[in-house]
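Data availability excerpt. The first of two example chains:
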Amino acid sequence: MRAQQAPARELLAAVGLVRQADLRPAQLSGGQQQRVALARALARRPKILLLDEPTSALDASTRDEVMAELVSRMHKLSIPALAATHDAHLAAMADWMVLLDGRRVVQQGRPRDVFAGPATIQAAALLGYRNRFTATVLKHEPQCNCTVLRWDAAAISLRVPMQPQLAPGGVIDWVVPADDVRLPPIKEQELRPSENPVLGRVEHLMVRGANTTAAMRCGDALLWMHAPYRLADHHGLALGQELTVDIRAGHVQCWGREG
């Protein structure tokens, strides 16, 4: 029995439950029971590990730590795993990810490539992009190698890198990561010409540690952005405040609509 306890406690330690080793299942929370299930699955040394929403009962404070330890242990034991999840954080830990929409594969690849470049508007939605909008193509400007869009919901024009495949007058889908909606920098020497200035009013504001997430009302649209707390504090970001941000043109992705 003692020979079995050592590896069992090692696995419990890997999922952060060594202090609860002597408790009964009924004394554990739902998240703790989920972690026990993960440890129990690894204890069998399976040829492949099948995981269905393995982080669904884990709180944010333990999720990344537990899953990082689990992935590390699977690598050490050379155990491949196939996980079905809606958790973008877990998907980012994978070696390869596949996006499914209505039982159809919409994109696959290394997580960093997929997250950085969604192939379709459906893929962007699955990846958690909040800034998903439509626009009308106004014209192409070869002299500046850009395409001009009309963001109808906000009643403003945007310039994006040349998109020759998009026909003027056509309606398109477009996204921009919240990280690429920028406040002006603190230092004046870091100021650069604004690519796509957008005026809006702050409607939502969330501070989490060193980061601030805000949503601005721009006409009928809600534009999300992420900013370091120090930068947001410098601008006195507050609910109801009007301010101008910059949408980075090179990070806007567009797709023409079929039909």
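And the second chain:
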Amino acid sequence: MSIAFLCPGQGSQQPGMFEQLPDHPYVQKTLQEAEDILQTDISLFDTKAQLQSTTTVQLALFIWSMAVYRAFKSEGYTPDMAAGHSVGAFGAAVITGALAFRDALPLVQKRGEWMEKQHPSGYGMGVVTGLSYRQMTTLLEEYERDETMYLANVNADDQFTISGEVSTLESFLTAAAAEGARKAERLNVAVPSHCVLMKEVSEKMESALQTVSFSSPTIPYAGNTKPRALLNTEKMKDDLAESISHTVRWNEVMHLYYERGARLFIELSPQAVLSDLINKQSSEIRGISVSHGYEDCCLLMERYSLK
């Protein structure tokens, strides 16, 4: 049975998250390397004040997931495939061996900075659960015509996120609740990710990626916008850039990896957002976040490797 590593996107951050990292030499080594590359003290990245910044959030999550991945790798725990949600895709690219950590970190920093500058205020994201895809797209039709609201992520059969203007977000969430949504609320995200409002950022990232050296991946990378198991570096670059301004099809990504034999999904995250989604899909698969215990993840990987 195959094992997949999952890297989180914005929304999985929380204050004090660096304190949750396992006490491991490769964790400390990664944190120090990140400081050397960024030329800044990252110890405050996980404070409540600092996590109000999109750039800091994306950097903190990327560094967190890479620190844990390196700890696992040093002990012989490696995945058969990797996927990353939103900015987590850069972590997945590193795990596949296609992108070096030293090259990925500045790209993540630029990504966050460009997104903040593109729409510094008046925009955000919301989450809706309990509606079908058809119900969501029907509700969104009017807003998309007005170019004020967009479908950002399809995370599960009944969980979606939306991006757009703050005033319109409130109106849409009220409409979704009236339609029967179990949950319809704002997310703690200050930029309208994964929609056409970020087209210029995608274009900047496309250019930036051409200046970085990529290697042939040793395991598949899952595309965010076109759920495919990618082993082609040019297609990986396209996905890393395009996903900033296109809908993330995460639900399809997980189905894809299930079809390819993945049965254990390890979430390299301070929270259990992605693994919770996995565990709701089928009793045949298991998702666990490192936030539930580093040693527990190691034990499960040993068991699944023997199956």
